[in-house]
Amino acid sequence: MPSDEEANYLTALTVFRGGGLYQDFAIAYPPCRFLLMGLLFKIFSPTIPVARLYFNLVTPVLFPALLFFLSYKVLQLLSKTESINQAILKNYFLSLILTLIYLLFVQSAQEVHVLTALFFLTGLLTWKNLKIKNFILGFILGLTYLFRLDSGLLISISLALTQLNQIKKNLKKIKFFISGLLTVWLPVMFLIILKGSLINFIHDVLILGLWTQPKMMSLPIPPSPLGLVFLASLIFLLGSSLLLIIKSRQNAFLFSLAIFSLLSFVSALGRSDESHLWYGLNWITIVLGVILFELFITKKDKNDFNWLSILKISLGLFVTAKLIIYFKSPLALILLISLGYLIIVSKVKNQRQQLSSKNIALATLLTSLLIFHSFSYLKLRLNLPGLPKSFNRPSTADKNKIAGLIFEPDYIETLTQIKINLSDDKNLFIFPDHVLFYEFFEKQNPTRHFYLTGERTEKTETEIIEQLAASQTQDFLIFPEKAEQRGGRVWQWIKQNTKITASYQLNNIKIELRKANQS
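The chain above was modelled as a monomer; its predicted structure follows.
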């Protein structure tokens, strides 16, 4: 089982059992996911299949629908010059195609993407009452922050860049926006203060989540040919975002969407493994629609194309994308986009020919295809997600289940042997992963930390050691190969204060049962 799934499940289970937010668990994310999963546990049962129901049903149902309406609205705003009937027909089919592209090739949205799509769709819709609109926008942004702080920050940055002048002119309306945001966050902060730990919340979510975790989990960009796919995607997002800015100068929310679609991908460079890079590509379908719309649907004029300008734009996109991937710095990108945005907006009126939307569209398409150079890479994303195996397995006795998942008899037999050799102590410390076993052994983790990844600080290590010593924990279940890889003060403390009493093999994975040294 993936370690993220274990950590999400046990955190939600702690909430379900009445644990205090960030007092009885440690996680680098805000609490909304775990509150909702805890509610599902209450309605159904506290099992892994129910947790998978949350991840495998909610987003796949909601996000494609919102993506369709968002794509449709963007294309509708860009086609105001055409007749109504032509625009409706073209937008409908193009939006349908874009949604199918997402379903076939991206498929990495999470619940926070549902909220961000809803945020921008709400912003692009026409409202009679702007006060209500601003309140709802603030409310949705508050929920976005409540799922992922980085996503909320990216929306806030894109709004600040594109709507600062409007905010100054409409200070009264911003009050309703802030009111909506506070409506979400004030009850949550009250709950954390009342039944949780505000200090731990600040440490886990701000320090670990925004600073330590991205640095510790940064991985090299995958080598070719996969690296070419991501480079081509980045060039496509750079160019299409620029095009969307040029095409939508009168709509601040289209400006914001263009910048956000780019930032959401490049921010993933801080955790640049394959899954996280794809995770940032959810908005590429919308900007792809802008390219297709500009090149193949709007009226063409040969005089619009300037091949020297196309060459300059292509070279600029390529060099910029290469530098971004080389330095792999989301902060540098945000500064670059902010500077570029200000330059483009100030000069677009005076350089209409050089920044022709058709020149940008063609340069972007050609440069991306030249780097991509083979459509065979698309097979990387053609494996459609299916139901988790646990949903399809036949029912069996509860003794072979852990948290609703069915395990092989040999697996359970090994765990049973370990369980027999555990002391009567209520505590057990598992290091550094396979933490789902807490449920099998029916033991309590003496710390609030389940899965110890690289996102550790000096405070984390000190806190775990102090809690292990104070609880006088007797039993330690260690996966030595992973423990040596992770290292750290906790592992050194365990080696110094425990001794090996038994060793086991679990599907070719070595396990050590250690007991605390007698004082």
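The first strand starts at residue 401 and ends at 402.
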